[in-house]
Amino acid sequence: NAGVTQTPKFQVLKTGQSMTLQCAQDMNHNSMYWYRQDPGMGLRLIYYSASEGTTDKGEVPNGYNVSRLNKREFSLRLESAAPSQTSVYFCASSEIVQGLFHRTDTQYFGPGTRLTVL
Amino acid sequence: AQKITQTQPGMFVQEKEAVTLDCTYDTSDPSYGLFWYKQPSSGEMIFLIYQGSYDQQNATEGRYSLNFQKARKSANLVISASQLGDSAMYFCAMRKDTGRRALTFGSGTRLQVQP
Predict the structure, then answer these.
(1) Of A32, A83, A86, B110, which has the fewest beta carbons less than 10 angstroms from its beta carbon?
(2) Strand A19-25, strand A43-49: pairing
(3) CB contact under 8 A, A41 and B50
């Protein structure tokens, strides 16, 4: 049971190059997320997918596209990388659990991808 | 819109002592969840503790407890008996219970535990 896995762990791109960050989870979760973390800041949502076949924009979606390939996999694509996209990218997944009084869920994160755009 | 504020950029604590990390939040949603995550120098995000807005009791998980004061909109993390391995960045986050269930994060507090 690996949880959430991300590839690659590190990547250096030149401005204008494209690449896809891969994410997979083996917890049978419906919801998956992509966040970015800039130095000295908390994580910000790029895109999320509430379930297989659905995606929606988050707080900072410009310059990115996503694909929810199946229930396990959620990829993030940079079509034309820019230096402003230098960041650490985290994928997460979660599942809603019905508790006694209300629903709850916890997001579990992958190890992150450190991306540098020159 | 939701907002999380962590006013302590850095904190020091002696080993074996307790420490409180502050978190205040702002939301108009009646139902929401509050989370704390730990990010060690290795970079991964580790879930620590969760508090639901309707929970009557403060959440506890081992040495971690969440001091939830709903009227003040605060959700402070208390770490008892600090250990050297507790040195890390700590992030407070929240998400609403309806609609998009993504997390909104604060800017974090760097905790350093001294021997």
Answers:
(1) A83
(2) unpaired
(3) no
The whole-number average pLDDT for the span B58-81 is: 96
Cα of B96 to nearest chain A Cα, Å: 10
Query: Residues A67-102: pLDDT tens digits?
Result: 998 999 999 999 999 999 999 999 999 988 776 666
DSSP codes, A30-81: SEEEEEEE-TTS-EEEEEEESSTT--EE-SS-TTEEEEE-SSSBEEEEESS-
Rounded CA gap, A19 and B69, in Å? 45
Measured between CA atoms, the residue of chain B closest to residue A99 is B52
User: Which residues of chain A neighbour B104 with C-beta distances below 8 Å?
Assistant: 45
pLDDT tens per residue across span A22-57:
999 999 999 999 999 998 888 999 999 999 989 999
Tell me whether the omega of the peptide bond preceding residue A8 falls within 30 degrees of 0, making it cis. yes
Between A and B, how many residue pairs show a Cβ–Cβ distance under 8 A? 66
> With contact defined as beta carbons under 8 Å apart, do A51 and A30 qualify?
yes
Are B43 and A111 inside 8 Å of each other by CB? yes
With beta carbons under 8 A apart, name residues in chain B contacting A58. 100, 102
Alpha-carbon gap, residue B52 to B34, rounded angstroms = 6
* Residues forming beta bridges with residue B3, ordered by sequence position: B26
